[in-house]
Amino acid sequence: MTGLRVGVVLRPQATTVEALRSAWVEADAMGADSIWVWDHFFPLFGDMGATHFEGWTLLSAIAADTKRAMLGAMVTCNSYRNPELLADMARTLDHVSGGRLYLGIGSGWFERDYNEYGYDFGTVGSRLRQLEAAIPRIQARLKKLNPPPVGRLPLLIGGSGEKVTLRLVAQYADAWNTFGPPDNYERLSSVLNKWCAKVDRDPAEIERTVSIDADDVDDVGRYIDAGANHVIVGLNSPFGLEPLSSLIAQRESLG
User: Fold this and answer.
1) Is the pLDDT confidence value at 106 over 80?
2) 3-state secondary structure string, 150-205?
3) What is the pLDDT of residues 37-66, one digit of tens each?
4) Strands of 155-158's sheet, edge to edge?
5) What is the per-residue pLDDT across 150-207, written as a single tens digit (0 to 9) for each?
6) DSSP secondary structure string, 26-47?
7) Is the pLDDT of residue 1 over 50?
8) Are the C-beta atoms of 157 and 172 separated by less than 8 Å?
9) DSSP 8-state class, residue 149
10) Which helix (H) or strand (E) holds 96?
11) Which stretch of DSSP H or E encloses residue 235?
12) Left, alpha or beta for 201 (phi > 0: left; psi -120 to 50: alpha)?
C-alpha cells in the first residue's frame, strides 16, 4: 500500500450533534480520507458528566452527510453487540455510505461502559477470547447477508497487545490501529510483522493506521518512517480542524 492517508476522530463528548455534523461535513469537504467517532457511552476524560452521544448512531448520520471520506468507529467494542448483529449493522451502513465503511473493532476496556450498561466486564483475557471468537462469526454472517456489502468493508482491529491482539490482526485484519509516539508504533509494527510471518500473511496487505493527538501533527514523516500509512488525529469539541488541515497539507506535499 502506497501513499499517505489522513483522517480525524471527532470525539463525541462535551459537544452537540449540531457541532459534530458541522465538523464531519467540513472534514469531508476538506479532503479527509477518513472520519471516525469512538464507541463509548460516557466521556473518557474531563467532565465525566458532560454530554455524550452513541457512536454507531452517529456513523449513520456521517454516512448520509458525507460523500468522499471513509468512516468508522475507532473502535467498536466487541462486547457491546452480538457479532451477527454487528455484521448486519456494518453491512447496512456500508450501503448507506455507498461502500465507505471500515468495520473497526477491539476487545473493549472502559469499565464504566460495562458497569452502567449491564455488560460483564470480565478480564482482559476473557474479553480478548470473546473478540477472537467473534471475528469468524462476523465474517461468516457478512457472507450470508443479502445483499452483501457494497464496498470492501475492511476489518480494522485496534489495540497493542503483543500476544493476542497483534496475532488476530495478522490472521484477520485488513487494517490495524494503535497510538504513538513513533518509537512505540515502530516497535509494535515490527511485532505485527513477526506475527504475519508466523501465520504466512503478507504484512503489506495490512493498512497501518496510527491515532495521534492534535499537538502531534507536525512532521508526520516520523510516523511514516515508523511504518504508518494512515495518520488519524483525535479532536475535541469545538472541533477546530486546523490539525486535520495540517495533515492534509503534508499528505499533498508528499505527493
Assistant:
1) yes
2) CCCCCEEEECCCCCCHHHHHHHHCCEEEEECCHHHHHHHHHHHHHHHHHCCCCHHH
3) 999 999 999 999 999 999 999 999 999 999
4) 70-73, 34-37, 5-10, 230-235, 207-213, 175-179, 155-158, 103-106, 76-77
5) 999 999 999 999 999 999 999 999 999 999 999 999 999 999 999 999 999 999 999 9
6) HHHHHT-SEEEE---SS-SSS-
7) no
8) yes
9) P
10) helix 83-96
11) strand 230-235
12) beta
- Report the 10 Å Cβ neighbour count for 97: 22
Residue 2 has pLDDT above 70, yes or no: no
CA 79/CA 175 separation, integer angstroms:
20
Tell me if 173 sits within 8 A of 155, measured CB to CB: yes
189 touches 227 (CB < 8 A): yes
Give the predicted TM-score (pTM) of the model.
Answer: 0.97
DSSP character at residue 67 = S
Residue bearing cell 493498512 = 207
